[in-house]
Amino acid sequence: MQTIFDTIKEVSLKIDEIIINEDLGYVDETNATGDQQLKLDVACDIIIEKAFRDNPEIKALISEEKEDVMECHEDGKYTLCYDPLDGSSIVDANLAVGAIFAIYEGEPSGDTLVGASYVVFGPRIEVVTLVRGEKPIRYRYINGAYQLFHEIQLGEKGHINASGGSQKHWQDHHIKFIHGLFADGYRLRYSGGMVPDLHQILVKGGGLFSYPSTADNPNGKLRILFEVLPFALIYEAAGGIAIDEKGRRLLELTVSHPHARTPCFFGSRYEINRFKDEYGIE
Ligand code: AHM
Ligand code: MG
Are strands 36-38 and 58-63 parallel, antiparallel or unpaired? Predict the structure, then answer.
């Protein structure tokens, strides 16, 4: 798996270069989930595909930007699912964006997820990698090289509250829960990019990120294979909890379709246990 992480670090430099230099306009098509695609989404997707498709360890590539699975090597060990540019809607405002990678051994699911990684393209490039069963490791790109920074460990409780979706469409129990956290002193930190938002909670030691079901999006917005499962593995490995609205571990969800979505709640233990109490989950 280390070679996959090494390649992620290499492609991140190329992606960073095109984020900085390329046209931010839209292409004429939409992607597999009907989102409008930026030229950057497509360019990042191609960079990742090229970097991995000849690696004999890779059985298949599944991209958020493509409808179909790309079969690579029949005897390959891993299926790599990735979101090449998370935060397409905020890149034009020059906010931090990211890329997310989930490494599956076998048919993609929470059980077969053996590793995960994400990249933050902010003022600096940071990469977090995780081998299942170990702790997430944070690297920073400084002076032309990646430097191991530290292992990531969440505290019992944090002070960040980040919830997605339009408040107009939140359900009453979600409104009550989120407002209750603010009333207790939690700070709003929501950029519209799940990578920087979830990363901030991880590196500041705790808090809550939620993307609930809403009246307009009953399954939430975030995709299980590319976005939700890799972060669920990372949050659990860091000592946090990652569940859906019914209190099920996200890693235990069944995946009906590569582009399936789910409501999701990631956080340190206190906030998630409070969420369960408020939502009436055993
Ligand atoms: P994207 O992959 O098209 O960028 O969409 C995913 C993003 C997440 O990064 C972020 O958490 C969410 O969409 C924000 O959605 P909303 O604006 O509905 O809160
Ligand atoms: Mg995304």
Answer: unpaired
